[in-house]
Amino acid sequence: MINKAAFPPVGILGLGFLGQILAREFSAVPESWGTWHKTKLTETPLPVFLFDWANENNWSALPETPVTLVITIPPLLKNPETEAERLHLWGKWMSHNRPELKRMIYVSTTGVYPKCNGIWSEDSDFEADTNSGKLRLLTEKILSQYFSLQVVRPGGIYGYERGIDVRLKSGKPIPVSNTPVHRIHVKDLARIICHLVDNPDAPNCVNAVDLEAKPSWEVARWLVENRNDLTEEMLPDAADCLPGTPQRFISNQRLLELGITLSYPTFREGMEFNV
After folding, report:
1. Which helix (H) or strand (E) holds 152?
2. Domains in the chain: boundaries
3. Which pLDDT value is given to residue 31?
4. Could you please report the per-residue DSSP string of 3-31?
5. Does 2 score more than 60 pLDDT?
């Protein structure tokens, strides 16, 4: 938890999995708040406002207190054209009605990068090759037109009962592709976002991935070999693993240059004790 009265306050749009972790981090920062789109949350360390990003009539629920907005909400619509229209409408509304809420951090995804061989960085020239990736990239571009924007692109977020170990226990299938999967522990992702909140001059886009990308089935194998609560029977059949799948890597050089030391630099530290 941040223990700085002078730390910049935030408004967290979306108190889901990541948003709740961020709320705990900013609970000691005066004037910080969060939003939720359904009935008000009963257990949260921040003031919560009922806010439906999809409902224009509800946008006025956003407080006018100057804060750094942190958006953890994924795209709401599947169609890029209608989602773009909605985002432009909201951006114009915010510029006119909440001009003091100008700074924003948007939590995007490494899913914007193409699923093909190569090493992809924040400066790479590329086009997203999935609909979800296109929607995220579209959101980044439109929000940058209305806000002073910093983008975080996390890999697969895990921790707190979310991850491959949980899938093994519940009997859910484990992907058997040989494609490396980039991950980030939710605690480290929260720390990266906190760093950006406190450093508005930091780069405007940062990949948030740890130091080692591994296929999911390799991580599952390591977990079974190193945790007493997991067994061999939970593993996918190695014969089902798909050869020749893309060797796609996401650069974390910019993240390392920020000087942030990850608490969970690989999946081993993050999943060894199910933290």
Report:
1. strand 148-154
2. 74-163+184-210+248-271
3. 93
4. --TTSPPEEEE--SHHHHHHHHHTTTSTT
5. no
- Strand 248-250 and strand 156-158: the pairing is unpaired
Q: Which two tokens stand for residue 226?
A: 């190193």
Phi and psi at 251, nearest 5°, equal: -70, 135
Q: Give the single-character DSSP code of 172.
A: P
By the 8 A CB rule, do 207 and 256 touch? no
* CATH classification number, 74-163+184-210+248-271, choose in 1.10.565.10, 3.90.1150.10, 3.30.450.40, 3.40.50.720: 3.40.50.720
Q: What is the pLDDT of residues 190-233, one digit of tens each?
A: 999 999 999 999 999 999 999 999 999 899 999 999 999 999 88
Secondary element (H or E) of residue 103 = strand 103-107
Question: Tens digit of pLDDT for each residue in 112-162?
Answer: 999 888 999 999 999 999 999 999 999 999 999 999 999 999 999 999 889
The identity of residue 233, as a single letter, is: E
191: which 2 tokens?
């720390």
pLDDT of residue 77: 86
Tally Cβ neighbours within 10 Å of residue 197.
25
What strands lie across the sheet with 68-71, from one edge to the other? 48-50, 33-36, 10-13, 68-71, 103-107, 148-154, 205-208
- Please state whether the predicted TM-score (pTM) of the whole model is above 0.85: yes
CA dist 225 and 67 (Å) reads 46
Q: How far apart are the first and last CA of the chain?
A: 16
